[in-house]
C-alpha cells in the first residue's frame, strides 16, 4: 500500500520524534479518531482522553509501522480503538451476576440499526448506559463477534448477549418513534 508523499513525510518525522510532524499528524486524523472514541463514552472528555492516549501509543510505535502490511490510517485506527476499548473496560463495571442466558427468536446477528447513519448511531447509543453502549458499538459498528467481545471485555458470551438483547429492547421504541416521524 502506498501512502501519499505528505503522509509519508509526517510518518518519517514522527519516527524521528519531530514534534511538528506529530502535531500535524494528530490534527490531520483527530476528527475520525475522536468520532471512534466518542462511540464508547458518553462525554467528550473521556473520548478526547482516549484519542490522546491512543496517539501517544501511535507515536511510541510509529517506527514499527510497515506499509506493506496495510494503510497507515488503519494501523493507527486499530491502536486508538484498542486503547478506547481498554479504557472502556477499565472504567465500566459490566454486570454479570443473575443474568439468564438469552434465547433470542430474531437471532443475535440481526442488526436493527444497520440502516442508520454513524451520527444517528452515536445519538442512539447515547441513550444507553456505558456497558451496553460499548458492547453495541463493538458489535454493530466495529463488527466484532460475540465471542471476541466477551474475550476482550473478560465476560461471558451470555453477558454480551444479554446486553445486546436489553439494548435492543430499550432502543426499539426509540427507533420506532424515529421511523414513524
UniProtKB/TrEMBL annotation:
Keywords from the named record: Sigma factor, Transcription, Transcription regulation
Domain of life: Bacteria
Single Gene Ontology MF annotation: sigma factor activity
All residue ranges annotated as the RNA polymerase sigma factor 70 region 4 type domain in the record: 120-171
Occurrences of domain RNA polymerase sigma-70 region (ranges): 25-90
A biological-process GO annotation: DNA-templated transcription initiation
PANTHER family: RNA POLYMERASE ECF-TYPE SIGMA FACTO, SIMILAR TO RNA POLYMERASE SIGMA-E FACTOR
Family, per entry: Belongs to the sigma-70 factor family. ECF subfamily.
Entries under NCBIfam families matching the protein: sigma70-ECF (TIGR02937)
Name of this protein: RNA polymerase sigma factor
Amino acid at each position: 500500500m502506498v501512502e501519499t508523499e505528505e503522509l509519508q513525510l509526517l510518518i518519517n518525522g514522527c519516527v524521528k520524534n519531530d514534534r511538528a510532524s506529530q502535531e500535524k499528524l494528530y490534527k490531520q486524523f483527530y476528527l475520525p479518531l475522536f468520532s471512534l472514541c466518542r462511540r464508547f463514552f458518553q462525554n467528550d472528555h473521556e473520548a478526547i482522553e482516549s484519542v490522546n492516549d491512543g496517539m501517544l501509543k501511535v507515536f511510541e510505535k510509529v517506527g514499527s509501522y510497515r506499509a506493506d502490511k496495510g494503510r497507515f490510517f488503519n494501523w493507527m485506527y486499530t491502536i486508538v480503538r484498542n486503547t478506547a476499548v481498554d479504557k472502556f473496560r477499565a472504567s465500566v463495571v459490566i454486570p454479570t451476576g443473575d443474568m439468564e442466558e438469552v434465547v433470542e427468536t430474531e437471532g443475535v446477528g440481526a442488526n436493527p440499526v444497520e440502516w442508520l447513519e454513524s451520527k444517528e448511531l452515536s445519538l442512539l447509543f447515547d441513550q444507553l448506559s456505558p456497558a451496553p453502549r460499548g458492547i453495541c458499538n463493538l458489535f454493530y459498528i466495529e463488527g466484532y463477534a460475540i465471542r471476541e467481545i466477551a474475550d476482550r471485555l473478560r465476560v461471558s458470551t451470555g453477558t454480551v448477549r444479554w446486553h445486546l438483547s436489553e439494548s435492543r429492547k430499550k432502543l426499539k421504541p426509540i427507533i420506532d418513534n424515529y421511523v414513524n416521524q
